[in-house]
């Protein structure tokens, strides 16, 4: 299989801190790899190395066959990068920002302007194109930033936490844009702290923690590796919650989780569910909700790392 | 795909480098269109200094505002040019903290273009500020008593010194943690440096220790040179010393700035 992005044994240290501690990754052409992990897991460091902004201490990486270290210029002409911060010049208008990139990439003035207009239209910024970008909302800046990374029609796109700090609506809009790019055949590496985002967009997912890849696979595979499925039972009468918990404990031999008037437990063998239903029926307990579902990526992440992905955001904000 | 990518050039040619540099210079200059405040900073501040110094201190220092204006305008030109070199640092630092610098670095463009584009734009702004200050001074009664060559020479000397100083500016811009820090650094270094020179007042009344400092202060030499070029007086020696100081600046700060810049690029 041909890989658009390939990295072997990437290491990057900052003094004592190992930002990357031997990372391998490979993205097949035309696919979207989601790199999932909390703040400080090394996601951004990996992107910066692949986008030629940072030299690794050890390891090699190629983008479409070009070495990111020795053939950095070729790599740069094939990639687009959207970082964590909307990197737009606040003093320039939307059109000027995109025209500047077009001109830098060697487009004649007229073509650069056309390309800018097309992209602004595509990202729903046509009306705002003549305004200085400092007047833009956060979501608009991110869209402009993404548009800027597309001026050169990249074959490989790096999206480093493109939706961090966006409201849910802008986030969904951006997801739509990313899906559109996928349809054009662009290879994408997307980092995110949001499990839902990886679940929604990624063909394959890598989970980073402390500079290492701790798990990989498709969203379904990851959910399957940690066990399992999840049984949820909500009794119609809330006072029967303890009784339900006892039944579940007896059958599954694990202590279930009680929260929000619901009993939740990990299930390894789906065959036990009928037994639970029978026991509940015998006791005359009516369930208002009874479901067997795949564990969410959230639960997967917790099982893999022992901590939640999004908690560390607040830690970092405090630090 | 291999067929397309195999022919990609591995570096940027000189023509493309020049074009990219000019595009980035344009980018710095077109900002003025959207941010009149920057133009005001650039224009109002020197004019305010000119008016304040001439009409508030002028009579007390030189006996008449007209005499003082003639003495002080060359010094104000120097002060303004030196202050303005730090705008390179502020612009560079803003680009780095906002992520624009990373975006530019991820493009297949000459590594030097972001820096040289900015310096070219700042040089244009220096020329603009010089013209404005001289023009406004002439409205108030300042006269160039030497020649057009002297005027152009003064401009050339200021641009050369400013370019030399911009190495220090680049270093500060790369190192400082925020644009506000840059502003603070610039204010607390340039202000004492210009005020303890002969730029704005004759140094004769300084106490001995300050006079001793003023006599070696590079700003004194630069102000004397500009004064000589515009209204007559000694030109050769202060110009030579100013250029030597500039060379010293380049020798000290250029390697440092380039090293830090390389580690960023």
Descriptors:
heterodimer; A: 319 residues; Rossmann fold; Alpha-Beta Plaits; 2 domains; six-stranded mixed β-sheet; B: 265 residues; mainly alpha; 82% helix
Report on this model:
The complex is a heterodimer of chains A (319) and B (265). Chain A is 38% helix and 28% strand. Chain A is an alpha/beta fold and 319 residues long. Chain A has 2 domains: 3-224, 3-Layer(aba) Sandwich (Rossmann fold), CATH 3.40.50.300; 228-294, Alpha-Beta Plaits (2-Layer Sandwich). In chain A, the strands form 3 sheets. Chain A has a 6-stranded mixed sheet, sandwiched between helices. In chain A, strands 2-1-4-5 form a 4-stranded antiparallel sheet. In chain A, a hairpin with a 2-residue loop joins strand 1 and strand 2 (17-28). Chain B has 11 helices and no strands. Chain B is elongated and about 70 Å long.
Mean pLDDT reading of chain A: 88
Number of strands of chain A: 14
**Ends apart, CA distance between termini of chain A:** 43 Å
Which range does the strand content of chain B fall in? under 5%
Low-confidence stretches of chain B: none
N/C terminus separation of chain B: 28 Å
Helix share, percent of chain B: over 70%
Strand-and-helix sequence of chain A, N→C? EEEHEEHEHHHEHEHEEHEHEEHEHH
Shape assignment of chain B: elongated
- Chain pair with largest interface: A-B, 38 and 32 residues
List the total number of helices of chain A.
Answer: 12
**In percent terms, what proportion of residues of chain A is strand?**
25-35%
Q: Structural class of the helices, strands and pairings of chain A?
A: alpha/beta
Provide the CATH top-level class of the largest domain in chain A: Alpha Beta
Question: Describe the biggest sheet of chain B?
Answer: none
- Give the helix level of chain A as a range of percent: 25-40%
The total domain count of chain B is: 1
Q: In what order do the strands lie side by side in the largest sheet of chain A?
A: 6-7-8-3-9-10
Counting structural domains of chain A, the number is 2
